Amino acid sequence: MGTAVRKGNRDKSGPPGAWKLEDAKARFSEVVRRAQSEGPQRVTVRGREAVVVISVDELDRLLPRGAGKPAFVPFLEGLGLDGLDLEREVDRGRDIIL
Question: Would the pTM count as exceeding 0.70?
Answer without folding.
Answer: no
